[in-house]
Structures are given as structure tokens and as C-alpha cells.
Design brief:
By secondary structure, the chain is mainly β. Helix content is 0%, strand content 56%. The strands form 7 sheets. Strands 4-3-2-1-28-27 form a 6-stranded antiparallel β-sheet, with no helix packed on it. A 4-stranded antiparallel β-sheet has the order 5-6-7-8, with no helix packed on it. A 4-stranded antiparallel β-sheet has the order 9-10-11-12, with no helix packed on it. The N and C termini lie close together (12 Å).
């Protein structure tokens, strides 16, 4: 029976002094690894009454990507480093300079064999988890925006079977890659998530901040923020578009009404019952979406700005990381 979005309630909160910028979860557990604004990766276990985080030190800047790949955790940061950690001992296994600029996201294939990283050098690199050897260097995004400012490569996502990878940049350009060959299969354009102010601020805001394949791999969801009036603030409406990427056709488009800000993470329910987006401005937001009907099932502000979340195997538990807060949500029976 599908999980009812209306039944999710906060079950536990952990207050923090830092900002948790990324999150990954050990399957079948309440154990989490989160990247922090203080340059550490933290291990949390939310199963007990007390939550005593364990710090894993190695980065010299914001940790903005973390992924669990088999028995290893791989993190990426502002310093351009990728670090491999042992998930059980939390000991550093290896680390090296993987990108010339800020690593924005790190994701792992479901089988844990591949890890992908994207950075502001506008390159996506795909790594063999076991050896840390480079398998693909994917270049499909322009280094400069049409107005001659540096672009940014924020998002990437694997398909469930690990055969596909999608990447998305600041100006709304998406590429879907075949990981057997390292070649582009399709491109999509989502210009509504990018706002350029040519007069007052001579600056821009927005971009594709999240991507997610449907469980069967036929659809690709793209998240960000709609057009903004004052680009100094996250005042745009949350924005999601869903595509049949092979046909390069949009099948659904969603815009929030209550909350404002970026959709920084997207995940489909394991059975495809709904699509969940989270993010926000000063506040956090949840956006539960029915792709088939094109309806918003639930939208609300919550706690603080969310950067990333993890949905469990049953689709009944959500773990969120954000500004000064780690939280665990559960669907009431």
C-alpha cells in the first residue's frame, strides 16, 4: 500500500551548531554519514536515545558531497579532494585532489561499484569504488554562462540499475550519459531554474540543484527554483520538472505555492508512488508530487533549510540534513 505523504511526522531532531550540507545512509539502519560546513564528515546513529556523532577529519573546506559505496564512504569538498573512508572503522583509506574547483556533489551507484563527482571545473568524473581509478571523464557543460560568468555543475544522479548518469548545471542544461561507453545519450534544457539580472546586480542565481531517475529509469526529475525578482534572496518558488528523457519530452511541471526556495534534493518513492523534493530558503520545505496526475500531494515549510535527505527502503522514513539540524521523519501507521 502506498505511503501517505500526509502521515510523515518528525520522530527525532538533533540540534547542531554547524550546517550539514550532505547526507548518506547505511541501508536497513538509522546510521548516517553527513558532511559539514566545518570540514568534517560525521557519523550518526539515530537508533539510540542519545546521538553521539563521531567526527572524521580530512577535508579543509565545506564537505558538500558524501556517498556510501559498499563498505566505503566517499566524500568531496570545497578543497577539491575526494576521500575514501572505511564505513565501519571511519578510518581514512585514501584521498586525493580529484577536481580543480569546488566539488558540489558525490553520488554512488546502487550496487556501490561506481562513484560520480561533479565540480565547478564543469567536469563529471566517474570512479571505480574499489580501486579509485578514473573510469570516465564526462564533459558536456560549458564553463561560462551565456553572459560570460563562471558556470557551476551542481547535480548528478545514477539510474537504479547503474547504467545511466545525469548531470545538471547552473544555466539549466542537463546531460544523460551512457556509462558503458561514456557517451551522451540525450540533453535537456530547463531554463526556468536560472535567473540572470542584467541591470541592478549583474549577477545570477538558481541552477539545477537536484536530479532523480524514476525507479524504471524512463523518467528524469529536475529540481531548482523558479524565476526570481530579487536575486539576493531565495524568493523564487520551488520548481520541479519531470521528463521522458529519451523522447526529450516534459511530462510534468510543478511549482510550490506555500514555501519558497531551492529544491536541493529529489528522490522517487521506491515503488514510484510519489516524488519527494526538499530544500527551502530560510525555512525547510517538503514537496510531495504525483507525477502521473501532475498534482502536489503535500507542501509545507518545516524546521530549517534542508540540503539533503535519505529515504529508506520502505519509503516510510526520511532522514534530513540542513542548517543546524539533523532530523528523522516517520510515516505514522
Amino acid at each position: 500500500m502506498p505511503t501517505d505523504p500526509a502521515k510523515f511526522k518528525v520522530a527525532k531532531e538533533v540540534s547542531r551548531k554547524d550546517i550539514l550540507l550532505c547526507l548518506t545512509r547505511v541501508p536497513e539502519t538509522k546510521r548516517l554519514f553527513a558532511g559539514s560546513s566545518d570540514g568534517c564528515v560525521y557519523h550518526f546513529d539515530l537508533a539510540g536515545e542519545k546521538t553521539e556523532p563521531v567526527a572524521m577529519e580530512g577535508h579543509t573546506g565545506y564537505v558538500t558531497g558524501v556517498a556510501l559505496a559498499g563498505q566505503q564512504v566517499v566524500s568531496g569538498a570545497y578543497d577539491g579532494q575526494l576521500i575514501w573512508w572505511d564505513a565501519e572503522s571511519r578510518a581514512k583509506v585514501r584521498g586525493f585532489k580529484a577536481h580543480d574547483r569546488w566539488i558540489r556533489n558525490v553520488v554512488a551507484s546502487r550496487d556501490g561499484k561506481l562513484v560520480a563527482s561533479v565540480a565547478d571545473d564543469m567536469v563529471c568524473r566517474v570512479w571505480d569504488t574499489a580501486t579509485a581509478k578514473l573510469k570516465h571523464e564526462l564533459r558536456g557543460h560549458e564553463a561560462m554562462t551565456p553572459t560570460h560568468f563562471n558556470s557551476m555543475l551542481y547535480a548528478c544522479a545514477f539510474s537504479a540499475d547503474g547504467s545511466l548518469l545525469a548531470t545538471g548545471d547552473k544555466v539549466g542544461h542537463v546531460v544523460v550519459w551512457d556509462l558503458a561507453t561514456g557517451k551522451s545519450l540525450a540533453t535537456l534544457e530547463v531554463p526556468e531554474v536560472y535567473t540572470w539580472d542584467p541591470r541592478a546586480r549583474i549577477h545570477s542565481i538558481g541552477g539545477i540543484r537536484s536530479l532523480a531517475f524514476s525507479p524504471d529509469g524512463t523518467q528524469l526529475a529536475v529540481g531548482g527554483m523558479g524565476k526570481v525578482g530579487n536575486i539576493d534572496h531565495l524568493e523564487g518558488k520551488p520548481h520541479v520538472e519531470v521528463f521522458n528523457w529519451r523522447k526529450q519530452e516534459r511530462v510534468a511541471k510543478f511549482s510550490g505555492d506555500k514555501a519558497k526556495g531551492l529544491i536541493t534534493h529529489l528522490v522517487f518513492h521506491p515503488q514510484g508512488d510519489w516524488l519527494l523534493g526538499a530544500g527551502g530558503d530560510g525555512k525547510g520545505l517538503f514537496l510531495f508530487l504525483d507525477v502521473n496526475s501532475g498534482k502536489v500531494l503535500r507542501e509545507e515549510s518545516a524546521l530549517s533549510h534542508f540540503h539533503k535527505f535519505a529515504l529508506d527502503e520502505s519509503g516510510t522514513r526520511i532522514f534530513t540534513a540542513g542548517h543546524n539540524k539533523l532530523a528523522f521523519w516517520e510515516a505514522a501507521a
